Amino acid sequence: MSDQPILFSLNIATLCIILFSTHQLVLRAHGKQVYWPLALCLMSIGVVNCMPSIQQLVPQFQVFSLILSLPALLLIAPCLWLYTKGLTNQVPWQLELRDSRHLVPAAFGGFIALVAFCLPTQYLHAVLVTEELSVVEKAPNLIRNIIYGLLISAFLSVLGWVLQSTWYAYKIVVRLRIYRTQLQDVFASTEQKELRWLNWLLIIVGGAWVFTAVNLVLDNLFSPIHYDAQLYALMVFVVIYSLALWGLRQKPGFAELYGSAPCADTNAFEFVSVNEATDNKEQKYQRSALSTNQAANIAKKIAQAMKEDQLYLDAALSLPKLAAHIHTSPNYISQTLNETLGVRFFDFVNKYRVIAAQEYLQTTDKTILDVAMAVGFNSKSAFYTAFKKHTDLTPSQYKKRHHAASTKV
């Protein structure tokens, strides 16, 4: 078997996770297309990283695997971008014709692979496996020119992959930043929807991309970097495990709103596209017919829902829920909050929660976690963040300061 059993075992374990996760994602994708890009992303990573297993188990397919690795490499970043786009979409995501432009580089890589498959096997083996270019020099002129053309095209594609990966990583970061802002317009609690794990994964994958890109370029121009293959295989295993685990668990951030029907006298909440500038409120509400008097009346209804009905105690409170409660259009509520009150839904609700928490901290001996849960927060970290934002103190500091003031009196 392999003279590097640890490397072989890690590679097999990684491929098993990819196969299992891809199968699960494909099953889910029948009803939700958002899972297709992640399934394709995992399969592409599997093709790129299966070489150690291919060499040991089916060496006759080594050339085949190496040729397919180019289009697979060019598929990874676009698929991760489309998956991110699907998770952050305000309506159920579906693959559109305009999304196909993201697959053009991979299609070009597929064309290179198709031409390569048409070449005699001995030349492919000499170029890709044994690296004996002297065999190519003895080939007929047409075949020799095709091989050199393919090598140049493949090298340029690898350089393009470096730029492609950097560009998509940037697009994902920007998309997530805008998405988190949009969450605060709709939900009072967002920490379970913010996709923080995707940021950490991007950092890890970014490091792997940089290393792989530098190594590929140096391998084609000079000589590859010498590194511990087992350590690299372990890193790939951790990345794939994390991507598969969170990918299978994660639902689109706005999923709970997808099938919700608005109440009879309201309209469904109309989102602003994440591709538009979300801070331009005039553009956002330019089609609205909401008058100043109407906005003032809505503001009173919202305040009543919070003060008298204590709607903020609902940890799953969302803008459509509030709209149904006060029988008002979600769009009008959003406009009233942003334009009349100058606050996002998220901050508006959490301010009431913090005020209620202050009373608990002053009058009871409840723990910080108990207070957080009692006033509508669903995590201690979210409570600390909101409390600090509205009072400039942590809950513990506020409690100590109040007790100290009470003792002096």
List the helices and strands and how they pair.
Layout: H1 5-28, H2 35-49, H3 51-57, H4 62-87, H5 104-117, H6 121-128, H7 133-137, H8 141-186, H9 196-221, H10 229-249, H11 255-258, H12 281-284, H13 292-307, H14 319-326, H15 330-340, H16 345-363, H17 368-374, H18 380-391, H19 395-408
Task: Describe this protein's structure.
- This protein is mainly alpha-helical and 409 residues long.
- It folds into 2 domains: 250 residues, Rhopdopsin 7-helix transmembrane proteins, CATH 1.20.1070; 120 residues, Orthogonal Bundle (Arc Repressor Mutant, subunit A), CATH 1.10.10.
- The chain has 19 helices and no strands.
- The chain is elongated, with a radius of gyration of 28 Å.
Shape category: elongated
Give me the count of strands.
Answer: 0
Which spans of ≥5 residues are poorly predicted at pLDDT below 50?
A: 261-267, 272-279
Which CATH architecture of the largest domain is right? Answer: Up-down Bundle
Q: Beta-strand level of the residues, as a percent range?
A: under 5%
Radius of gyration: 28 Å
Domain module count: 2
| CATH top level assignment of the largest domain | Mainly Alpha
